[in-house]
Amino acid sequence: MKKTLLLLIVLAAVGLTNNSNAQSADSLSFIDVDVRKNIAIFELASQFNDQVVARVALYNLLFFSNDQSAVLDSLALMYYNMNRMPSVALVTKENLRLNPDNQVALELGAIALNQLGAKDQSLDNYEKLFLKNNDSRTLYQVAYMQYDLKRYAESGTSIEILLKRTDIDELKMTFMKLDQTQQEVSMRAAATNLKGQVAQANGNIQEAKALFLEAINLAPGFEVAQVNLSKAGK
Description:
Largest sheet: 2 strands, antiparallel
Low-confidence stretches: 1-5, 16-25
Number of strands: 2
């Protein structure tokens, strides 16, 4: 997350509008001054890539914020960018306690919980998020997490819903190749490959092979599907 967007979240959190900026220095309260000071510290520390000082400024702003949830969003994003997933999970948990509808917290929490091995909780976040954003990318994550948790019937249902969506021909998914480079394919190809994995897990090998071939036809050179096809033939 870029510094500018983080700052905008902070500004919204503490309620600094154009009207408040127009206040005279004499009319500012101690809290106003302290808020402005911490926003300035946050902005300068972010500019100088001093994450420790920037983070302290966010913690200070939590005391004065009209919307703690927004400041917690910024804090979680900062921890996410630092790859500190335990902190992301804890901050988003507190954020969702304050605001269960917070989509930023639901998504960041889902990512962190998945990386920490709490897959059931991660799926719960993704399912709640999909009910709020109706986003195909979220639905793919739901389907994949269900597959990963061996909930194959649920995953199959999610995939069928996903494959009926027209936007998946335009959306892209990124996969890691064997040589550790990244490869982009359409979400339709990715969902078809995942459907093949579900079929294979259910013991339907011929169906799985056909689906892997279909995924490769949808995205020529799709290495993950090629590897899955090769393994399915053994």
